[in-house]
Amino acid sequence: MSTAAAVAPPRQLEGLSRCALGPCLLGTAFLVTQQLPVSPMWNSVERVVPAGLLLLALRPALPRGSWWLRSLGLGALNFGAFFALQAFAVHRVPGAVVATVTATQAVLVPLLVALFGERIQPRQVAAAALGVVGVALLVLRAGHRLDAAGVAAALVLAGSAAAGMLLTRHWGTPPGTHHLSTTAWQMLAGGFALVPLAFMLEGGPPAMTHGQVLAAGWLAAAATAAAFALFFGGLHRGVPPATVARLALLSPVVAALLGWTFAGETLSPAQLVGIAMVLSAQLLGASRRG
């Protein structure tokens, strides 16, 4: 029996695999975004709003009662604040630094879960820490400049991602409502909140070529709609938040492998060690309880 099979039954492995596919699809965004105009706010709007409309078309439903406010809050944390802070942070410090700091949410989530009284196995925290170090080895380079405001924004981004993940799990979905609908509500709330920021910071939407429109379509349909549907679907189906947060570390691994495969980038020995550490973190943290 393999190590993974020894620590999780087949049904749980299937759920973990589906959840892990979300961050893997999200990892394709790093390569595809390079094909778009340099307009991070409008790029975010043009991937999040169409993604929300796509999911809503698949599972049409409107929020009811408290879910209007919950959708606004989750949309702000998981999409609005996420992309706005990411755009600000990348403007001040290298994207590799932002990715590393943001990866700390994998440690923050199990610590917050424990703070609220749920039992967390020590190896969950150890696995998350191992994965974060792996991401650092994968993306960081010597000589990266640091800016206090940029690093602070990345830290707030990590906290926003962690809080959004925990609240998504805590609130679940309204009775009789599919999780695709609640994910769509979040996307539309967060995406429309980004529109005035995009106008203020970047002016009107940039013109795009046919190739860029296709790239934007992939970002919206695959790297956003499908990615977050699978990612949040894991939370709604009972995958523990600490496990979901750890699986999120697969995104930079996929991004690096795609860059190596399609963009002619090289992988140094340190980066290969980083990839091995991120993958080892998934095995170390695997258990019947996640």
Automatic annotation (TrEMBL):
Domain EamA residues, every copy: 25-139, 150-281
Bilayer-spanning residue ranges: 67-89, 95-117, 124-142, 148-168, 180-201, 213-232, 244-263
Q: Which UniProt keywords apply?
A: Membrane, Transmembrane, Transmembrane helix
Coarse class of the primary localization is membrane
What does the record say about its membrane topology? Multi-pass membrane protein
Q: Which domain of life is it from?
A: Bacteria
Q: Does the keyword rRNA-binding apply?
A: no
Cell compartment(s), UniProt? Membrane
**Can the keyword Transmembrane helix be found in this entry's annotation?**
yes
Similarity section: Belongs to the EamA transporter family.
PANTHER family assigned = EAMA DOMAIN-CONTAINING PROTEIN, INNER MEMBRANE TRANSPORTER
**Name of this chain's protein:** EamA family transporter
Species source reads Pseudonocardia eucalypti
The top of its lineage is: Bacteria, Bacillati, Actinomycetota, Actinomycetes, Pseudonocardiales
